[in-house]
UniProtKB/TrEMBL annotation:
Belongs to the drug/metabolite transporter (DMT) superfamily. Small multidrug resistance (SMR) (TC 2.A.7.1) family. Gdx/SugE subfamily. GO terms for molecular function: transmembrane transporter activity. The keyword Hydrolase does not apply. It is found in: Cell membrane. Pfam families: Multi_Drug_Res (PF00893). It comes from Shewanella mangrovi. Gene3D superfamilies: 1.10.3730.20. This is Guanidinium exporter. The chain crosses the membrane at residues 33-50, 57-78, 84-102.
């Protein structure tokens, strides 16, 4: 169950990162509120997952999900450039997450 919670924590991290963009420096009230809710939810879920997962594993996966998701969201939602270097970098982050998981078993 901790893994499911951790995945939702990572997805919430992506949501608040996207929300930051839409909040336009917290000048948009609805987007700002949604961003804050997602931020709190992300931290709470990460904290819950840390009850049974090692810090290095949980935090690494959480950050990785957020980073990968934010890069993909930036490309899809905001037209940010996606090139070979970014794609390889995402794959390296994914490999790092897998490596952390394998070393923590």
């Amino acid at each position: 169950m901790a893994w499911v919670i951790l995945v939702f924590a990572g997805l919430s991290e992506i949501a608040w990162a996207i929300g930051l963009k839409y909040s336009a420096g917290f000048s948009q009230p609805v987007a700002s509120l949604i961003t804050i809710i997602c931020l709190v939810l992300s931290f709470v879920l990460l904290g819950v997952s840390l009850k049974s997962l090692p810090l290095s594993l949980a935090y690494g996966v959480w950050v990785g999900i957020g980073t990968i998701g934010s890069v993909i969201a930036g490309a899809l939602l905001f037209g940010e450039q996606m090139n070979a270097v970014k794609l390889v970098s995402i794959l390296l982050i994914m490999a790092g997450i897998v490596g952390i998981k394998l070393s923590s078993s």
